[in-house]
Specification:
The structure is a single chain. With 115 residues, the protein is α+β, with helices and mostly antiparallel strands. The chain is built from two helices and eight strands, in the order ββαβββββαβ. The protein has a four-stranded mixed beta sheet, with no helix packed on it. The radius of gyration is 17 Å and the shape is globular.
Length: 115
Amino acid sequence: MDIFNQTDLFSTEEVRKIEFDLPGADVTLFENFFSIEESNKLYKSLLQNTPWQQDQITIHGKLVDYPRLTAWYGDISKDIQYTNTKSKIHVWNDDLLIIKQQIEQEVDINLHAVC
């Protein structure tokens, strides 16, 4: 399934930055950050190769599934716990390293972990 196959009459291959003026937040959208081919390749690979985890939270004494699957990645492999949820931080895989390095280069920031 190619989810990044939308055609746009006005699209280009160049990266476009769109900054949003929001109170208390700096939000920038980078259009075309990856090509359609790169996006589809990364999406398929991450979907198949990520050890997704279904976490739960206690609400009014009942265990309830979070409304999303999660997977933590970072510079080191480590067991963590937050809001009574145990998770494992996995070391960056090759696909995430490609994404991480391109983001770090574009916005001049160092990422140490993502979920």
